[in-house]
Amino acid sequence: MKRLLFAAALAACALPARALTLTSPAFADNGTIPNPFTYALAGQCAGSNHSPPLLIGDVPAGTQSFALTVYDPDGGNWLHWKAWNIPATTTRLAENAAATATFSQASNDFGTAGYGGPCPPTPDHRYVFTLYALSATFASEPSTSQLQAAALATATLTGRRSPTDNLAWTAPSPQECLFSWAESTYASLFAPAGASDATLGPYTYRHYAQTNAYLGISSENDHLYYLGPLSDYALLDLDAVAGWYRTAGCD
């Protein structure tokens, strides 16, 4: 119940509106895409071809669905992923979500359905992830112009990859995953994202200097807590963290 009240308060709060966001816990914007998310092609690349985990935040009102495209502009606009009719309630796509997706996916330029990861033959290729928050759903594959026409907002995330790159990646702990999800989903409250973890007594927390807010987990009762302008700087118990892990897809 407190989660619902908190979400409602967030929606109604008078903090400045923010733009639609697309981030990944696996790589920063303009950072190197790690090995698990690259393609497997004999003699050129040997990845797991998992679609990367993605976080969606600050969704505009009226969004009916999302679409996502991934192109390599340095490889002749090679299509690596195109997905649409992603539910409007989606805040997180887990690692390898493309493999079990219930949303629609097109064939990529490798000739396979769904996600096809980076496999560049030359250095420093960019992979541009574009998220569309749409005012519609589609009965068949939409064109780029249709996506643009129906877009309430767009967000981009760019990863890079070279043939010589060799970057491992380990999935974050549920706690790290939850903090990242909160930073993306409620970006107008928890900014700037990526604050360092700190401890005080039983609390592991992050302080967001831009909004002067705190988000923490207590080891005494495994509850999530908020302290900041939304609670008039009174400590707000947001209930058991296990429920938040499920909400965020971090369990």
The amount of helix comes to 10-25%
User: By CATH's scheme, which homologous superfamily of the largest domain applies?
Assistant: PEBP-like
CATH class of the largest domain: Alpha Beta
Q: Sketch the topology as an H/E string, one letter per element.
A: HEEEEEEEEEEHEHEEEEEH
What share of residues are in beta strands? 25-35%
Our count of helices gives 4
CATH architecture level-2 label of the largest domain: Alpha-Beta Complex
| Average pLDDT, all residues | 91
Q: In order across it, which strands form the biggest sheet?
A: 2-11-10-6-7-9
Described by the principal axes of the CA atoms, the overall outline is globular
N- and C-termini, Cα separation: 20 Å
Number of domains: 2
Q: What is the tally of beta strands?
A: 16
Low-confidence stretches: none
